[in-house]
Write a structure and sequence with these properties.
Layout lengths: L14 H17 L5 H31 L12 H33 L2 E4 L7 H15 L6 E3 L13 E9 L7 E6 L7 E4 L7 E5 H7 L8 E13 L13 H12 L4 E7 L4 H11 L6 E4 L8 H5 L26 H7 L2 E5 L5 H12 L3 E8 L7 H11 L3 E6 L7 H13 L3 E3 L6 E2 L3 E8 L2 E9 L11 E8 L2 H15 L11 E3 L3 H17 L5 E6 L5 H13 L2 E6 L16 E6 L4 E2 L2 E5 L6 E5 L5 H5 L1 E7 L3 H16 L4 E4 L5 E3 L9 H18 L16
Parallel strand pairs: 1-6, 8-9, 11-12, 12-13, 14-25, 17-22, 19-20, 20-21
Antiparallel strand pairs: 2-4, 3-4, 3-7, 5-6, 7-8, 10-17, 11-15, 15-16, 16-17, 18-25, 19-23, 21-26, 23-24, 24-25, 26-27
């Protein structure tokens, strides 16, 4: 039973403000002058993309609560209204930091490296002006649709996240009162337009909206353009799906996706210096409050910087690309199933290639002894080889069952396309479960062998996405364990029907059993500490904001359990509270790869339990999603994971430590600099080099003791 003071709101950070702290940590990567310039630019783009999604989903949700009169406080003691005020202040501060960095640092540094970005058409020379005007008439003008607003033409619906230019017009002949017009910057055209350079060594770009603004008078003949400014609207994109009442979930989600473009306007970005009259017209027609207006000192929507990151040439301004290494535990000349029969196989992406997972499904699709393939899909790539293999398997007469989660946010449309393709190929497709998101990552292959039916299972912490597997750090496990195979069958029976197993052999599954499993493990460490035994918890995840889990960690800390948390993003737990969290450290690693794996270590009086899975310690993961936690039981693999955790705890280059006030600072110590992600890249290459040196005889994992090896 928790002590009542473990629930004190003063012991918790607000979830949304904690997320803003995370995005600030991403911005520090953009400020890191030890990184190549275009890598820094990429991080600035990521902060802008992150903020867009945060506003469309989290801020929108809080606004819905305020509109509904919802007054309940969060775990940090804040009402939705109070949260919105603090979030607004934090967002404005973050945006100011983004543009200060963009204007004062990146524009000059790009120019120093022969990349010039013209952010105002007034800065063009004569030759550039002629080129831009010609480009406008030939490429842009035919695509544009200028929209005037008057008594017969009401203010148009402005699409979510679209970039637009607003203008005030005056009739040349009559000199009548100002009239309003708007034109959308077409997303079908490239926003970055290369133009002639003043200097031979330079390459020069201008933004499409500046080309349109320069020539906007061509769109309104017989009118004088009094003023014109770019603007951008963010809308509520949080889908509300009445699943219980939907006759067809796929059709209902398609309908809601279309509505996403026209949700309530919740943020307005305008060019700094916009005329008051023009701004007031936008504000009145969009229904935007003053706190949601962002005056931007620079180009709106910095996500275009990701396109700059990819410009040809300038390889010296990017990191040398790392190629994911082969998995030395897997022999590509042998079939995958015989190797999994011999031992469990651990995968560590992106340091090791994702190919074995793709090959696992591909081989199963063509293997005449495979009877069935079952898989959950949450987010997949746009040209997924796994989808193609599943379709082939069905065409080959195998029983193929796929749960495609249609409610995977911002991947709904993509998943609908894949679901239909799989159905057309003859797969049995399940569109998720009513009221729950299926977030688990599991593949089951059922194979007939000489000694009977055998099940092969892949379990992972990340999505079955061959593209993001090169960018996200994730873990995976291949096993032919009979108890896990039986559990895997039970999972798919539960997903496709109404069969809930009375118990599980090895897996812990949300929403019914996973929370209890975590609480049991934490409480066991607490009991051991109270008995004077060594007690330790190491937990790595994306986010921590579940009040019951945090309270249990506080109680464990108070009992003397040493707790190390590696949490990339949101963390509502506070450190350094006397007699409550003095034994807890929280660190966040933000680097070239997105830390995505979930790993949980419990000392358990020397037995050392290690689990991995798809769930963070968040109420949505534990109570509202289908998630799977799986054990790692082979001692060799446990040693590998302990090594991974140990290296991450020693990272003193990309690690930020959480402070009692909720802020983060870089971990700096007297130890030799160690970046865990760089270390794992070198270690993966070293393993392959060692394997080749042994001429394929040794597949034994040996931790790299010296990062310089």
């Amino acid at each position: 039973m928790f002590k009542s003071d473990f629930k004190n709101p003063e012991y918790y950070d607000n979830r949304e403000l904690s997320w803003l702290e995370f995005n600030k940590r991403v911005l520090t990567e953009a400020k890191d002058d030890t990184l190549p310039l275009l890598e820094r630019l990429k991080f600035l783009s990521i902060t802008a993309s992150n903020l867009d999604e945060f506003v469309m989903i989290r801020v929108a949700s809080l606004k819905d609560m305020v509109h509904a009169g919802y007054k309940k406080k969060d775990i940090a003691g804040m009402t939705p209204e109070v949260q919105l005020k603090k979030i607004s202040a934090g967002c404005h501060k973050l945006v100011n930091s983004q543009y200060k960095l963009f204007n004062n640092t990146f524009i000059p540094l790009l120019a120093d490296n022969n990349i010039r970005l013209i952010t105002s058409h007034e800065d063009l020379d004569k030759d550039q002006e002629e080129y831009v005007d010609r480009y406008f008439h030939q490429e842009v003008y035919p695509v544009l649709t200028p929209m005037a607003v008057d008594s017969s033409r009401p203010f148009p619906l402005i699409r979510n996240k679209s970039l637009n230019i607003a203008a005030l017009l005056q009739n040349d002949k009559t000199g009548d009162e100002y009239e309003f017009a708007t034109v959308q910057v077409p997303s079908v055209l490239p926003r970055l337009v290369r133009i002639p350079s003043k200097h031979e060594k330079d390459i020069t770009f201008i933004l499409l909206e500046q080309i349109i603004e320069k020539n906007i008078d061509k769109l309104f003949l017989n009118y004088k353009v009094v003023c014109a400014s770019p603007y951008r609207v963010m809308r509520n994109a949080d889908l509300t799906i009445e699943e219980d009442e939907a006759a067809d979930l796929l059709t209902e989600i398609e309908k809601q996706i279309r509505k996403r473009q026209w949700g309530e306007a919740i943020r307005l970005e305008v060019e700094d210096g916009i005329k008051d009259r023009l701004l007031n017209y936008l504000v009145d027609n969009l229904g935007i409050g003053n706190e949601d207006i962002f005056n931007i000192s620079g180009p709106l929507d910095l996500t275009f910087l990701m396109k700059m990151y990819g410009i040809e040439g300038f390889d010296n301004l990017r990191n040398n690309p790392f190629k994911p290494q082969p998995v030395v535990d897997i022999d590509n000349d042998r079939d995958i199933f015989s190797q999994i029969r011999e031992k469990d196989i651990l995968l560590f992406h992106p340091f090791q290639t994702f190919d074995p997972v793709v090959d696992f499904v591909r081989q199963a699709a063509s293997d005449p002894d495979v009877l069935a393939i079952k898989q959950t899909l949450y987010r997949v790539s746009s040209n997924s080889p796994i989808i193609s293999s599943l379709a082939l398997a069905a065409e080959n007469g195998k029983q193929v069952s796929v749960l495609v989660e249609l409610k995977a946010r911002f991947d709904e449309e993509n998943n609908i396309v894949w679901a239909r393709k799989l159905e057309q190929a003859g797969c049995h497709v399940i569109y998720g479960l009513v009221g729950l998101k299926t977030h688990s990552k599991i593949t089951l292959v059922v194979r007939r062998e000489e000694d009977g039916i055998r099940r092969y299972v892949h379990l992972g912490t990340g999505n079955y996405n061959d593209s993001t597997a090169k960018l996200y750090t994730d873990m995976g496990l291949f096993t032919s364990s009979r108890p896990i195979g039986e559990d895997a069958t039970a999972v798919f029976n539960m997903l496709s029907g109404y069969s809930e197993p009375p118990s599980w052999n090895k897996l812990a599954v949300a929403p019914l059993w996973l929370r209890d499993k975590f609480m049991e493990c934490i409480e066991r460490e607490t009991a051991h500490a109270r008995e004077g035994k060594e007690a330790r918890i190491i937990a790595k995840m994306n986010s921590l904001c579940d009040a019951k889990i945090i309270a249990a960690l506080y109680e464990a800390s108070a009992a003397g359990v040493k707790i190390d948390l590696i949490i990339r993003g949101i963390c509502c737990l506070k450190v350094g509270i006397k007699d409550v969290s003095e034994n807890i450290t929280v660190r966040s690693i933000v680097g070239n790869y997105l830390e995505h794996s979930r790993i949980f270590y419990f000392y358990n009086d020397g037995y050392e339990d290690i689990f991995m899975g798809s769930a963070d310690w968040m109420p949505r993961n534990l109570d509202k999603r289908v998630e799977i936690l799986f054990p790692v039981e082979e001692e060799k693999l446990k040693d590998e994971i302990k090594h991974i955790l140990d290296i991450q705890l020693k990272d003193n280059v990309k690690t930020r430590i959480k402070l009692p006030d909720g802020s983060y600072e870089f971990l700096r110590n007297d130890e030799k600099p160690l970046s865990s992600q760089d270390y794992f890249c070198k270690e993966a290459m070293r393993a392959v080099k060692q394997f080749k040196k042994s001429k394929g005889k040794s597949r034994t994992f040996e931790p790299m003791m010296n990062p310089e090896e």
